[in-house]
Amino acid sequence: MAIVVGTELRRHNARRAEGSVMSQLRHAAGICTIVSSFTFLFALVIGLIR
Questions:
Q1: pTM exceeds 0.70
Q2: In angstroms, rounded to a whole number, what is the distance separating the alpha carbons of residues 50 and 38?
Q3: What is the chain's Cα-based Rg?
């Protein structure tokens, strides 16, 4: 029974680690999207001024 509980704890920690990585990837993707949007708008404004 202790082995089953130990295995469950390991699986839970593994899931938590995977969730953390996915969360970081989503966060990074969001930052990239925002930065690219501002870059595009900045280039558009510069193009209209010239």
A1: no
A2: 18
A3: 22
SS3 22: helix
Tens digit of each residue's pLDDT (9 = 90 or more) over 4-19: 554 555 555 555 666 7
* Residue 4, Cβ density class (10 Å: 0-12 exposed, 13-18 middle, ≥19 buried): exposed
**How far apart (Å, rounded) are the C-alpha atoms in residues 22 and 25?**
5
Instruction: Note the helical H segments in the chain.
Output: 2-49
Whose tokens are 């990837």? That residue is 25
Q: What are the structure tokens assigned to 21, written together?
A: 């990585």
How does DSSP classify residue 8? H
